[in-house]
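Notes, Module 5: Reading structure tokens.

Key idea: the token line is not a picture. It is a compressed description, and you learn to read it the same way you learned to read a sequence, by spotting repeated patterns. We will look at two proteins. The first is printed below with its tokens.
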Amino acid sequence: MTVILVLLTFATFLLIDHFYSRKRVVTQPVLMAAKREAMPRPGVVSGFQVPENLRYHPGHTWALNESPSLVRVGMDDFASKLIGKVERIMLPQRGQWIRQGQKIATIFRDGAAVDMVSPIEGSIADVNDSVARDPMLARKDPYGEGWLVTVQSPDAKTNFRNLLGGALARWWTEESASRLQRKMPQMMGALAQDGCVAMENLTDQIPDKEWTAVAKEFFLS
């Protein structure tokens, strides 16, 4: 029920943001190339980095346009800290068709498995073999070398309209951090206020038997 209420709130904010941002759509393609060449320093919201040039799925994955139809995908900073000392990340095969909001990767930790969902729909163009070999790379550098896959998305423009950006992305990150604190009061010291960074391994504060349920809730899987 909590997830449903949060998603309904998210949908309302997304509708508002859609009308607010219509006037800015014309300038976005011009700015995209510059953003790819020089990634801005991520802002920090409730202890988590939220780069302005990315779009986010509520399940804590991100998407970045590399071209009009090629999209790079990864997990966000909140997810990277929540997964903790991950043992393995299973990625899809090249050429596999992925739907927006459906499984794109599986995280294995302490014998448990949790899926992460895709922010974009399309065919897998490439996978990050470095992450497959060293899954901790996704936790250490989720917005850089820890990317997961690239997707050839014929309808990327429409898909991106369903994602979070700007103020909505920051709000969603703050809401996620607040919900995590309410679920796990013992994590109060692990999270941080804006301007500071949360602990790298939040799962140190979560008993193993509870991690799967918590991760599935936040990853919407």
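Here is the second protein, with the sequence above and the tokens below, as before.
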Amino acid sequence: MYTNVNLSAPVGALALLGTGFVLFITAIGLVYFLVKRKRTGVRFALVAMAVMAAGYVALMLGFSVASHEQILARGQEKHFCELDCHLAYSIVNARQAKTVGEAPNQTVARDQLTVITIKTRFDETTIAPSRGNGSLYPNSRVLTLTDDRGSRYAPSAQIGTPLTTPLRPGESYTTEVAFDLPAGAKPMSLLIQEGEWITRFVIGHENSPLHKQAKFQV
């Protein structure tokens, strides 16, 4: 299974929250020692915060170094590990077009549109029996298409079901995403990743510094 993490998402989230909480409490202690002018306490608090921060960064970089870049073929799924379930993404089709959508919301290519059909699936085999059949609201997604020259492109248009549409276990939908590439450019890979900034600080997350990513071959 290809995922956007190489550490269990609940473990990564707990590590971030736990470290943040301990740093916050230590910072309160630091303020107290400063007010009371207790130099020993100030030094202890500063050293403790530095050690915790350094340890966390070392773990984060360690998981990043241990990660591997993956190129997924047509139909292979990339799982986004939520706290209690997985959303699976795959490319089911890619085509070239001059226009997408209907007037008045039609998108016209400057040169050539690469239109990629993405399937989003709520993998019902990844949930606990106690979760139930409630809807899952996906986090924001960032899509980046890379061509054979190494240039990167953001989407020009999305057609069909938005990628943030909620799903229930076992449900799926498709979304067409159009990228406007210059003439002669050949699309090579598509990266789908989480858009929340906080994921950059989660141990084992592909958005963290130096972490390798799982991309789709177009």
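Summary for the second protein:
- The chain has two helices and eleven strands.
- The chain has one domain: 1-218.
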